[in-house]
Structures are given as structure tokens and as C-alpha cells.
Design brief:
about 190 residues; alpha/beta; Maf protein; 7 strands
């Protein structure tokens, strides 16, 4: 019998991407598959805390083991901001363009542009929690470049590259990205599961 596991996201593209990384013998369910239509609150002050909140919500309300993730962009010159607030950096309801514009304004004239993307994944197994992390080091560019990716990708240049995340193909980005690293660590664990 296949093991079932819920991925706590309402984003169908993200779900499909993660589904492709899971080992055989595991059936990944979406929030829609289990009837979860509510937005799960992300009220913690850390990526780990928010990912755990989402995983715990699914486990407690729906009874399924679950994987949940949270991602943030941490900029050294901004003391780690936007961090856990990356998706709503320019305020509630702000889009990626507004968030990026606020970030570039905050760094205007600042030569110190080191940054990292960090993804934390939490897996529930009954009452146990397992954590997986992926980090992509780089720097914030002066202006957006490229049309691929999403979010801050057009202004993030990964270390060792001359182009932004938005100028890489999806395959190139996934090979070096924070999310790709975190999900490969989870995948390695699940393969031994």
C-alpha cells in the first residue's frame, strides 16, 4: 500500500514540482485533495516556525503526515530582512514587483549587497518533526535582470554566476537553488524512509 503524505500548499505549480521529486511508493496529496481550503496562518518569527505551523495544522485538523515549507530572502545590509516577511515585504497584498522595488530602494547606494535565499521544510511523522534546509548564497543586483523565475529572482545573482536566477533555465536554477537543495535533502530522507 502506498504511503500518503500531504504537501501544505495551495500553489498547483509548486505542488507539481515537488510531486516529481518524491520517491515511488509515496502518494503526495494537495491541500485541495484533503478538503483544506482555508489559508493556514504564518504568524511565527522564523521560517522554521512558519513551516512547522503549517505542517502541524494539517496533522492536527486532517490527520495526515505532512510536509510544509517556508522561504525567505536574507540581506546582510538589512540585518537579515526581508527574511520571514519576504512575500509581504512591501505590505499586505503587495506583489513581487512591489517587494523588489522596496528591496532595491532599501539598498540604494549601499555597496554591501550579500544575501541568501533560505528554505526550511518540516516533515511530520506522527508526533515527530524533521527539518530540512537549503541555502543559496549570492548578492542583490542593482536592477532586475531576466524574465524567468518569480519573486526576487530577477535581482538575485547566485554566487559563482554572472546572471540572475531569472536568467537561468528552471533546470539550472533548481540544481543550485535553496528550494532545490532543501527538497533534495528531504528526498534523500524519504528514499530511506
Amino acid at each position: 500500500m502506498e504511503k500518503e503524505l500531504v504537501f501544505a500548499t495551495h500553489n498547483p505549480h509548486k505542488f507539481e514540482e515537488v510531486q516529481q521529486m518524491m520517491p515511488k511508493g509515496l502518494r503526495l496529496l494537495s491541500l485541495s485533495d484533503i478538503g483544506c481550503t482555508e489559508e493556514i496562518p504564518e504568524t511565527e518569527q522564523t521560517l522554521e516556525g512558519n513551516a512547522r505551523l503549517k505542517a502541524q495544522h494539517v496533522r492536527q485538523r486532517y490527520g495526515y503526515d505532512c510536509i510544509a515549507d517556508d522561504t525567505g530572502l536574507e540581506v546582510d545590509a538589512l540585518n537579515g530582512a526581508p527574511g520571514v516577511y519576504s512575500a509581504r515585504y512591501a505590505g499586505p497584498g503587495a506583489d513581487a514587483q512591489a517587494n523588489t522595488a522596496k528591496l532595491l530602494q532599501a539598498l540604494s547606494g549601499n555597496a554591501r549587497r550579500n544575501a541568501r535565499f533560505r528554505t526550511v521544510i518540516v516533515l511530520t511523522e506522527g508526533s515527530a518533526f524533521r527539518y530540512f534546509e537549503g541555502v543559496a548564497e549570492g548578492e542583490i543586483l542593482e536592477a532586475p535582470r531576466g524574465h524567468g523565475g518569480f519573486g526576487y529572482d530577477p535581482v538575485f545573482r547566485p554566487s559563482g554566476y554572472s546572471c540572475s536566477f531569472a536568467e537561468l533555465t528552471p533546470e539550472e536554477k533548481n540544481a543550485i537553488s535553496h528550494r532545490g537543495k532543501a527538497f533534495r535533502a528531504l528526498q534523500d530522507y524519504m528514499a530511506r524512509y
